[in-house]
Amino acid sequence: MSGKLVTLRFRKVVLAPARFVFAWCTDYREDDDQITKSIYHYEARILLREPTRIVRTITVPGRNRNRSTDVEIISLQPPDRWHLRKLSVTDDETGSYRLIRQGSSRTLIEMRFRRKCKTRRMPNLGNYRALFSRVWDRYVDEIEREYHREKV
């Protein structure tokens, strides 16, 4: 099924103001995987950081010592949007993120991803959805924890 295009949508509610959520979600650090290490481990390297653009590589350990390195280009559109373009050997992906204020200290994150598989073996979308949801549950917990820590 090489070339198959799949669109996935996700939503997460964060108990923090949109300004804080945007800053947290778009700071992209090399140690970000520490939040999700037990679920999803990767090595990030920031290649370029500009006010409206970040370029980084993501290396994911693979089976039999195979490693996969992807390139991610993130375009920031403050105060409430950013866009991801991931280039990989196995698939290409775009992600659109949008923050919607729901009061002074509640924010909805809407995420839409379009993934184009380059190989015959299509990943299991149920597993992908579950992994993504678990990763973002960790992110939401960390955003809320940091917001409440700074608020005190």
Can I get a quick summary?
The protein has 152 residues and is α+β, with helices and mostly antiparallel strands. Helices cover 26% and strands 44% of the residues.
Characteristics:
152 residues; seven-stranded antiparallel β-sheet; Alpha-D-Glucose-1,6-Bisphosphate, Chain A, domain 4
How would you portray this structure in words?
With 152 residues, the chain is an alpha+beta fold. The protein has a single domain (5-151), classed as START domain (Alpha-D-Glucose-1,6-Bisphosphate, Chain A, domain 4, 2-Layer Sandwich), CATH 3.30.530. Helix content is 26%, strand content 44%. The chain has 3 helices and 7 strands. The protein has helices at residues 18-25, 33-36, 125-151, and strands spanning 5-14, 43-50, 53-61, 67-77, 81-87, 91-101, 107-117. The protein has a 7-stranded antiparallel sheet, covered by helices on one side. The chain is globular and about 50 Å long.
Content of β-strand: 35-45%
CA-atom Rg in angstroms: 16 Å
Mean pLDDT value: 89
Structural class: alpha+beta
Distance between the termini: 52 Å
CATH architecture: 2-Layer Sandwich
Using the alpha-carbon principal axes, give the shape.
Answer: globular
Number of strands: 7
Largest sheet: 7 strands, antiparallel
CATH topology: Alpha-D-Glucose-1,6-Bisphosphate, Chain A, domain 4
Instruction: Please write the CATH class name.
Output: Alpha Beta
Oligomeric state: single chain
Strand order, largest beta sheet:
1-7-6-5-4-3-2
